[in-house]
Design goal:
Length: 493
């Protein structure tokens, strides 16, 4: 009885402890919920305290101060916002210092704040004023891109987006062609950094038929202007002007749906290039002129080229289909697959076969890939298909032909095969390890050590090593041949 009483007391104590623990966790949860940074919790601080915190947080940060001023201006009406944006754009345009890569992110944030204010605030209240501002924003592009190391196109993206914004704002403002056309034309003449590429295509809805016609006349006059008196590089600038004008005329032709005009502005000597022929053929095909599309594609001397872009090949197959020459299209797809192991051609070929014929055709394609002269192209094909069993079979049969310096391909293949084909993955990993050590590629020692660890993890899953040495024997052989490569072994350790 005494023991039973003690047991009950212990249970009550444990229950009370658990309840206390649950209560403490609950209280901590409530406290955490109240201190979580969200709008609802911050509202409890009240406006005066929040204002003090904003002043404190913005001290020393020009960007945050500008954001606060913009918000304050928004409360005063559209005119104040316009004044703040215009003032900032003028300031950005007057700056002349070089903008290093470390400052690009800050400048990007500044530009995006101005652009979004124009689009989200000013354009909603006064589209005409917003268009003037967004165009002023675009005019900054030349001076900013000249001063900036923008190799990743971070800032360029803001200006390209601003062109799309300009079209939407122009439509909302109901601007006519007479006001838009001169601005677009001026931009095309000042496109040193490619920031206005595709501007005509983007602005076409706002320009309308009248604007496109007027713009075409201006560009034609610009194209026919006589060469300027040289100065240094004068001839280069003339060539650049002619290229820009022809590109603009082609964009106008596309916007007007005028295929013949597009082709007319393509220099004849370029039409035998595969990508240009493809470009022309696609437009002719879309216009229902498949015969002419095939003629454009056949201007390319395929036999004289080592490499033919797949875009040209796909366009030719599409064109043959449009001409109701399906058997020729299929034969062409198979021939191009046999030549390049293109998975895209093979998929298109198989999709058009009757039921069950595709299985036999796929096996025929795999046989072609297994015997393909370039084992790396074959491996890449099997991985992309995907056919991991075939990839493993290829590795085991032709490992001696692998170029172990092709680290990205072999590493990716080993990773893909490891879970279900550990022997093939081990062959690939060891091949890269051996290459790295035999050629003393010290920069790869860390990777080779990781590969060796992967081999150790795969070893228990290999049921039959065949002619491949077991893992312990392989490591012993490495120590015997490369024991002095301490850089490698330090990573292994």
């Amino acid at each position: 009885m005494q023991a039973a009483g003690i047991l009950q007391a212990r249970r009550r104590l444990a229950s009370g402890t658990r309840a206390a623990s649950v209560g403490a966790r609950s209280r901590r949860g409530i406290m955490a919920a109240k201190t979580t940074l969200n709008a609802k919790n911050l509202e409890t601080l009240g406006a005066p305290r929040l204002a003090e915190l904003l002043i404190e947080i913005s001290t020393g940060s020009a960007d945050r101060k500008r954001r606060l001023r913009m918000e304050l201006a928004g409360g005063q009406g559209s005119a104040e916002v316009v004044r703040e944006v215009r003032k900032r754009l003028v300031s950005l345009g007057r700056a002349r210092g070089r903008i290093g890569w470390r400052k690009v992110r800050t400048l990007k944030a500044d530009l995006e704040m101005q652009r979004k204010t124009i689009v989200e605030t000013v354009a909603q209240r006064d589209p005409s004023e917003a268009f003037d501002l967004v165009w002023q924003f675009l005019r900054l592009s030349d001076t900013i891109l000249t001063r900036t190391a923008d190799s990743n196109g971070t800032l360029m993206a803001s200006f390209r987006q601003a062109i799309e914004d300009a079209c939407g704002i122009a439509l909302a403002a109901g601007l006519d062609a007479d006001s838009l056309t001169p601005r677009v034309f001026a931009a095309l003449q000042d496109n040193d950094h490619g920031q206005y590429d595709r501007m005509i295509t983007t602005m076409a809805p706002a320009l309308g038929a009248d604007g496109l016609t007027a713009l075409k006349l201006l560009v034609c006059e610009w194209l026919e202007e006589p060469p300027e008196k040289p100065a240094s590089g004068g001839q280069v600038s003339v060539r650049g002007r002619r290229l820009a004008a022809r590109t603009a005329l082609q964009e106008i032709a596309d916007a007007q749906g005028d295929v013949d005009s597009y082709i007319a502005h393509m220099p004849g000597e370029h039409r035998g290039a595969p990508m240009i022929a493809t470009d022309i053929a696609d437009r002719l095909l879309a216009a229902g002129r498949a015969d002419e599309a095939l003629e454009a594609l056949d201007r390319v001397d395929v036999g004289g080229r080592i490499f033919v872009p797949i875009e040209w090949e796909l366009a030719r197959a599409r064109t043959l289909e449009a001409l109701e020459r399906a058997d020729e299209a299929q034969a062409f797809r198979w021939a191009r697959f046999e030549r390049s192991l293109s998975a895209e051609h093979l998929r298109a070929y198989l999709r058009r076969l009757p039921d069950f014929d595709d299985v036999e055709a796929e096996e025929k394609a795999f046989a072609r890939a297994r015997a393909f002269p370039d084992v790396h192209e074959a491996l890449a094909f099997f991985l992309s298909w995907p056919a991991p069993a075939e990839a493993a079979r290829l590795v085991e049969a032709r490992s001696g032909k692998l170029d172990c310096d092709l680290y990205p391909l072999l590493s990716s293949a080993a990773e893909s095969l490891g879970a279900i084909h550990p022997l093939a993955a081990t062959i690939l990993l060891r091949a890269m390890i051996d290459f790295t050590l035999e050629h003393a590629r010290s920069s790869r020692y860390r990777h080779a050590a990781r590969h060796l660890a992967d081999c150790a993890a795969l070893a228990p899953h290999i049921e039959d090593h065949g002619s491949l040495a077991p893992h312990d024997a392989y490591v012993a052989g490495l120590r015997l041949r490369h024991g002095r490569k301490h850089g490698f072994w330090s990573h292994v350790a």
